[in-house]
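Worked example (supplementary).
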Amino acid sequence: MNPKTKTQIRETQAASLKMLADMLRIRHMEEKCAEVYGAGKIRGFLHLYIGEEACAVGALSALAAEDNVLATYREHAHALMRGVPMRAIMAEMYGKAAGCCRGHGGSMHLFDAGRRFYGGNAIVGGGLPLAVGLALADKMQGIQRVTACFFGEGAMAEGAFHESMNLAALWQLPVLFCCENNLYAMGTALARSESQTDLCAKAASYKIPAVKVDGMDVRAVHETTLQAAQKVRANGGPAFMEYATYRYRAHSMFDPDLYRDKAEIEQWKQRGPIHSFTTQLKAAGQLTEADFLVLDARAEAEVADAVAFAEAADPEPASELLRDVCTPAEAI
Amino acid sequence: MKITYREALRLAMHEAMTADPRVFLMGEDVGSYGGSYAVSKGLLDAFGPERIRDTPLSELGFVGAGVGAALGGMRPIVEVMTVNFSLLALDAIVNTAATLRHMSGGQFSVPLVVRMATGAGRQLAAQHSHSLENWYAHVPGIRVLAPATVADARGMLGPALADPDPVIIFEHAQLYNMEEELPSDWHCDITHAAVRRPGTRLTLITYGGSLPKALQAAHELSGEGIEVEVIDLRVLRPLDTDTINASVRKTQHAVIVDEGWKTGSLAAEIMARIMEDCFYELDAPVARVCSAEVPIPYAKHLEEAALPQVPKIVAAIKEVLHV
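After joint prediction of all chains, the assembly is encoded as:
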């Protein structure tokens, strides 16, 4: 292999710093969400992505703008990585008209049609059949596009998972199945809910190529997803990714987190995606502490701006309650 | 030209698929088998397996995929064998298709058509015979249609496919073999009920597979000098209350025939609407003829006893009219 050119090295370094910056943006956004939730500004269910940042950052940076993305109810990071402005995400959680869904969706239902971000789905496994259909539509229309569908390992117990895997493999549809395995379906550990805990074996049983990757390593996630997405794009058939990861916070703000050993949480924190990537970059001479502090401060400033925007934004007027239940006649 | 309800449905699909390359049909046994009720027979030869797409027995998977394909720019027609099986796909219809537009702040429409058979009368017992149209008619965000004539079977699909929101079409299993003259203008308005027989003494409101029974009851009563106005709802959601109210205000009496169970039925909803809008114009309490509150039994005499029948409808009308 040819040695990398200086330009390539610079590009790699810039991409690495971008991934670090994005993980910091997500971390600060999620921490702020928890804080303002505590203050009663955000209500309903709130599921935080803290600890899992490397998955969304590594995977979504490996996709193209024209690809389709579907996610779960723990999807703030996916929306942000897809390019939804943090202001629109925060305003949505505040229930404001300036939110990305006018305050109709909330934390679990972030959507952005222009960015081909199809939610935000609060039914476990609910996005999987949709992903199959989106990919089918692309195939029938001769559009070369990847549909990436994120879901947790808990979704793999749902019938929707098995039906979708079968359809995608049977019809050779370009779906990239992205399983974020954080080991707990709410409070139920994987081994307590699955007879087969090797998730790649399940995917392989549908003749779908499956790869497991360390979901705490953003570079590994990015590289592996990039390869898988390229194969899906080139060959048209599906692929399955398992990102081995961990959430540091409880399932939702309502969860007292009684089902996990504190030592286990601490152990995973030692392998924290931001901490370990920062250490790697510093060791490689690609990042100084001063650089890090700049990225960190920038992320904090973006979050502060998003919160200020959401606070000041107007709520959706109650007179608009019934809008968008059906398409208005004048739009047909 | 006389054609069957089944042929009318097939003609409508043939026409829609010829006119628009985005339209395709998928469901269990719609292709090689020709459709469990033979509605899609011959379409595989005409359009090929990409557009007449046999699916595995995965109601949730393929109805959900229909939602996704609609989001992705196609105009899918998804056939579910019976309303009983559609319960396996309720999540895709109720939690997803019906909610996406509102939940996304108006960013996404789901131009999906789901067709399914409904109703009893073929001795198929308690897992193939129920009338659960009102479950779907309960849900905001979807349109629910029930063709009861050959003309509507021919005319409803086009406007249903043109609707940017999800549409569910209920085909009563007892109507597939019904043969009627196809009128030259079979185009269908999927926003309004239809007056199928004009009358003055009482408004008889029904839909789907109960329409022939309602018309038969009206015919028999006409022989006794009682002229009953028969309204075919056609659209189960959103209900065309204007047509119902106009008729009830004229006749001042109403009976509803609904093959669903009485408790929580569409009939109950229509009665409530009449109370809200026409209470002071009524001369008698509104009555209804529904299915007995029992899982539909297999044996022919028991099944017949469970369903609305012409004599029961005639009796209910006479009781309301005190004749």
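Two points are worth noting when inspecting this output. Chain B has two domains: 2-181, 194-321. Residues 2-181 of chain B form a domain with the Rossmann fold fold (CATH 3.40.50.970).
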